[in-house]
Amino acid sequence: MKTQTSIRVEKEYFQEAKEILGSLGLSYSEAVNIFTAMIVKYKGLPFEVKIPNKTTQKAIKETRAGKNVKKINLNELKRINNA
To answer: With the C-alpha atoms ordered 42, 48, 50, 53, is the resulting torsion angle positive or negative?
Structure first.
């Protein structure tokens, strides 16, 4: 038996998520149902949620500031992954 619910999400995320899910053959509703089932199965979120350690926090801050970042294109990334 299904129940109807209402959620509020950021509009731009919702639109992009719908496009991504559509390319995977899923509707937004189906994805929410999968996520809900995973919460029940794992008795919590189906992924780890934690505050990053100081090293990771520093790396995130530097990356957001554009420090120590090397931009590469998709072909370079594929080459690196296949090496």
So the answer is: positive
**pLDDT value, residue 16:** 95
Q: Is residue 1 part of a domain?
A: no
Give the CA angle between residues 7, 10, 16 to the nearest 5°: 105
Single pTM value for the model: 0.58
Model confidence pLDDT, tens digit, residues 12-26: 999 999 999 999 999
Number of domains in the chain: 1
Residue 43 falls inside a structural domain:
yes
Residue given tokens 């996520």 in the structure block: 35
Q: Give the structural domain span for 30.
A: 11-82
